[in-house]
UniProtKB/TrEMBL annotation:
Keywords: Receptor, Signal. Residues 1-22 form the signal peptide. This is Outer membrane receptor proteins, mostly Fe transport. Residues 407-771 form the Outer membrane protein beta-barrel domain. Pfam families: CarbopepD_reg_2, OMP_b-brl_3. The keyword Ribonucleoprotein does not apply.
Length: 938
């Protein structure tokens, strides 16, 4: 009886006070990251409650968890080497936000990392490289480090690509860095200040705030500096003079202290480039800073003034169903350009509110004078001489705001955006064209025709966009750090374009202009694009996905006021919305994205008026064009082995376009039994592209040796209209590349072999072919093979450095009727350079190269180039230097190249002075964290 009574009392106690027992089963979860929002692994986490003290560490992705926490409240203490400790007080029912650790420069100064560092780490949306695992020498810049990283490529112009995607945006420690342009800084920042390099799939600041990541991301490069290196001064200044009327003076300075960034630049340079005068003047100033911990602003202004003379020649072979066209073109001229650009931005971010806005204003005006001589033979024999003088003025203004608000229940959010833009272009143009027609059989001159005309063009564009997204937070899943929601979004974009063209033909006898009604227009087009989407989203530490559906109605109207013609078209497209990112394990991630987008025809493609700027290629718009709709799918898989450093990055992409806007090239006979070209525009279906790319990297001996294999395979189907006949061409493009690399403090060497094949390289529907008077377009698809082998090495002693390189390339084009002059091109380039130091402050630099060219349609030359320089450095840190240099001592410079453009093979040479002697006095500033760093020029 007593036992039964005791049991009954226990049950009553449980019913009256269930919370006391529930406390035994509380689970606490959290996430630890640094100021750059990158996970901190192996951080110590101590939980102290009134009844217990528990300890754990964060995992590879920065997450921690405690089970069976007792008591009503508790405190957390988080610590990790190199960071300030974090302490916070919480209740059991309180949600733990992301814990952010701030770097402690003083602690890490004494830390020496021993053992083998992991070169790569893969996380959700991020691939991270550990700079300590790669060879960084004194004087290396950021680009030297990036070139060693698996999956990244850096070209001679400092363009950075990863898995075929160009990287434009740069951040340092997770924050915008001056212009935020990758190209502007990777050659100027020292590699020695870098702790980590991160390649991030960036969905934008607004998406990072709300956690709703739906759109396709861009690739962002984030540099994490070593402790104490988040501040510095860098820049340079100098004056130079030399032969070819050469003179230059200028300087730039950047002041950086974490979020406070100020910069200024002013320069002037002039010289004779071989074709005439080349002048460039540039100036700019910018400043960005935090008002408080939540608000930030930025402002910058840039101006430029350029004058450039040019002279070039081209040899072109074009294949067409009618036969082969040959052209040789010589052009000379001079351009002047002035531009001004002003930009200001403001942002606010708190726990519940995000807001940013920006205003951009620009003004450009330019003048152009050019003359060209074009000789054609083959199917058409014609000579054309053209003189073109024009002035252009283009002002524009753009403004936009984005905002987000976390609602009261902390699960839901509301976001919106608004933007306006206005731009215009006014052009006055004088064109004089002299055409000489020849008999097709005898090739004797039949007629000499001269046409002079003035064109006055005004284009105006205004646009407005608005959008919002409402995210309804659903009941939390079992994972307390996960989030699920229903998302409703709407986007509206309205654009209005007007174009007015007045054409006057100048009478040859009276020299008076006469208005030509048939070649003039007054045209307006209006487009309205809408997208409404509904989807479901889920995100956790290892999985994020969004699934939904979108409807995109589009209205396009065009009014030709001159002809009194009005056309309206309406389209409606449906498409799914897919975004998936999953961390399979600590070293494996997979992503999948789909997006659909409308593209409206531009006003030049719509207006049904003959554009006669080029009399041999008259362009006529099509007012019945419909907007195109593109379906894009891409997927990635990334893997890295933590112990060995072996990494694999793969990608798969697919593109299908409905109602794609393509050109219809029509060759029509003229009154002299010759041919001329008209280009029109059509909508077509059937264009698609399916491709994959991959990069495998295998390091050895702590990254001293590495082998990498990268490449891609693509198949495509492209449509071309020739003489109103639609033609499809299916083709395959293949690229393969094998690299080996060895790096040490004294010796580095590399070897590369690559092969590229293309059986479908007609880009007629993607880009203009060649801006050449009389250029004839075709529909023949070449089979192009490119082979390349490259060897390079560097040997470094205390006072002397040697660099050598051998590069061989071979290219062959195969197709019906390809002439021998355009079939095969070979180039062998050998180079050797040496730089030595004498008595600590004197430096001598000698560079030599020999290039052997064969197969070009233009005159083949085999230049032997010799550069030499002698410099003296001053001051304790050698930041002041005086140098004398000689460029191309033997005056054998040759700017010769070949490229495939559509159905044309183009050889081009640009004439410019290459033998130049220069004297220069310069001062360089490169100080970070209170320490000077040398950055050697490439």
């Amino acid at each position: 009886m007593k036992k039964c009574l005791s049991l009954l009392l226990s049950i009553l106690a449980f019913l009256c006070n269930p919370s006391g027992y529930a406390q035994n089963n509380h689970r606490i979860k959290g996430y630890v990251a640094d100021s750059a929002k990158i996970a901190v692994k192996d951080a110590n986490v101590i939980l102290i409650s009134d009844k217990d003290t528990l300890h754990t560490t964060t995992d590879q992705d920065g997450y921690f968890s405690f089970k069976k926490v007792k008591g009503g409240s508790f405190s957390l203490k988080v610590s990790s080497i190199g960071y300030h400790d974090f302490t916070g007080n919480y209740s059991l029912n309180q949600e733990i936000k992301h814990i952010q650790l701030k770097r402690d420069a003083r602690m890490l100064k004494e830390v020496v990392i021993k053992g083998k560092p992991n070169p790569m780490r893969i996380m959700q949306d991020t691939i991270e490289y550990n700079a300590a695992a790669f060879q960084v020498l004194e004087g290396d810049n950021m680009a030297d480090l990036l070139k060693q990283l698996p999956g990244l490529e850096v070209d001679d112009e400092y363009n950075v690509t990863t898995m075929g995607k160009r990287m434009y945006k740069l951040r340092v420690n997770g924050k915008d860095f001056f212009t935020s342009n990758v190209k502007d800084f990777i050659a100027r920042l020292p590699a020695e200040i870098v702790a980590k390099i991160q390649v991030i799939d960036d969905y934008g600041d607004q998406a990072n705030f709300t956690g709703i990541k739906i759109a396709e991301p861009i690739k962002l490069l984030n540099i994490v500096t070593k402790p104490g290196m988040n501040k510095g001064r860098f820049g340079n200044g100098g004056v130079n003079g030399g032969t070819n009327n050469q003179f230059g003076i200028g300087g730039n300075l950047n002041l950086w202290k974490d979020t406070r960034q100020s910069s200024g630049e002013l320069s002037y340079n002039t010289s004779n480039n071989g074709a005439g005068t080349a002048q460039a003047m540039a100036g700019g100033i910018s400043h960005a800073d935090e008002i408080n911990k939540n608000m930030r602003y930025g402002i910058n202004y840039n101006l430029g003034r350029n004058r450039n003379a040019f002279a070039n020649e081209q040899a072109i072979e074009t294949l067409n169903p009618l036969g082969t066209f040959y052209q040789k073109n010589l052009s000379t001229g001079e351009t002047w350009n002035n531009n001004h650009h002003f930009n200001t931005n403001f942002s606010y971010k708190s726990k519940k509110t995000f807001f940013d806005g920006n205003v951009m204003v620009s003004y450009n005006n330019s003048e152009n004078m050019s003359s060209s001589v074009n000789n054609q033979w083959g199917v058409i024999k014609q000579d054309l001489e053209n003189v073109n003088r024009s002035t252009n003025t283009s002002p524009s203004i753009n403004a936009g705001i984005n905002f987000s608000r976390i609602l009261k229940n902390k699960k839901s959010s509301l976001s919106g955006n608004f933007g306006i833009s206005s731009s215009s272009n006014h052009s006055d143009q004088y064109i004089s064209t002299n055409t000489r027609y020849y008999d097709k059989v005898t090739e004797l001159l039949v007629k000499d025709s001269l046409l002079n005309r003035n064109l006055f063009t005004d284009n105006n564009n205004q646009s407005f966009n608005f959008g919002f997204n409402y995210s309804l937070g659903l009941k939390k899943p079992k994972d307390t750090l996960a989030r699920q929601s229903l998302n409703l979004s709407y986007n509206l974009s309205v654009g209005r374009n007007t174009s007015t063209v007045q054409t006057y033909v100048i009478d040859q006898l009276s020299k008076l202009p006469a208005f030509v009604d048939s070649l003039s227009t007054d045209y307006t087009s209006v487009s309205v694009n809408q997208t409404i989407s509904l989807g479901y989203g889920y995100s956790s530490n290892k999985m994020r996905y969004n699934f939904g559906v979108s409807a995109s109605p589009t209205m396009l109207s065009s009014d030709d006021l001159h002809l009194g013609q009005k056309i309206r078209s309406n389209t409606l497209n449906y498409s799914p919305r897919i975004n998936l990112s999953k961390t399979i394990s600590k070293s494996k991630t997979i992503t999948l994205n789909y997006n659909g987008s409308n593209r409206n025809p531009n006003i030049n493609q719509l207006q049904p008026v003959r554009n006669t700027e080029n009399l041999q290629n008259i362009v006529i718009g099509n007012p019945n064009l419909r907007p195109s709709f593109s379906h894009n799918v891409n997927a990635t898989y990334n893997y890295v082995a933590a112990k060995t450093g072996i990494s694999l990055q793969t990608g798969l992409n697919f593109n299908l376009t409905q109602h794609e806007i393509v050109t219809n090239v029509v060759l029509i006979p003229d009154t002299l039994n010759s041919l001329k070209q008209e280009t029109r525009f059509e909508n077509t279906n059937g264009n698609y592209r399916l491709g994959s790319n991959y990069a495998l990297s295998i390091p050895f001996k702590k990254n001293k040796y590495s082998i990498s294999w990268s490449g891609g395979v693509e198949t495509s189907n492209r449509a071309v209209f020739i003489n109103n006949n639609k033609r499809f061409s299916k083709g395959i493009n293949i690229s393969q590349q094998l690299n080996t690399m060895f790096t040490s403090k004294k010796v580095s060497a590399g070897a590369r072999v690559s092969y590229r094949f293309s059986s479908n390289n007609n880009v007629l529907n993607e880009n203009p072919i060649v801006n050449v008077l009389g250029q004839v377009n075709g529909a023949v698809f070449y089979h192009t093979h490119n082979y390349l082998a490259d060897l390079n090495g560097s040997l470094r002693f205390k006072y002397l450095t040697f660099n050598t390189r051998m590069n061989y390339s071979f290219s062959t084009n195969r197709g019906d009727r390809v002439s021998d002059n355009f079939k095969n091109v070979q180039r062998l380039a050998l180079s050797l350079s040496a730089m030595g130091r004498i008595k600590k402050t004197y430096y001598i630099d000698i560079k030599t190269s020999k290039t052997i060219n064969t197969g070009y349609a233009l005159t083949n030359t085999n230049p032997f180039i010799v550069h030499a320089s002698l410099s003296k450095r001053f001051l304790k840190d050698q930041s002041l230097s005086f140098s004398i240099s000689a460029n191309d001592l033997l005056n054998q410079g040759n700017n010769l190249e070949r490229f495939i453009s559509g159905s044309s093979i183009v050889d081009t040479r640009t004439n410019q002075a290459t033998r130049v002697f220069t004297a220069r006095l310069s001062y360089n500033i490169s100080n970070f964290g209170g320490k000077g760093f040398r950055v050697d020029p490439d």
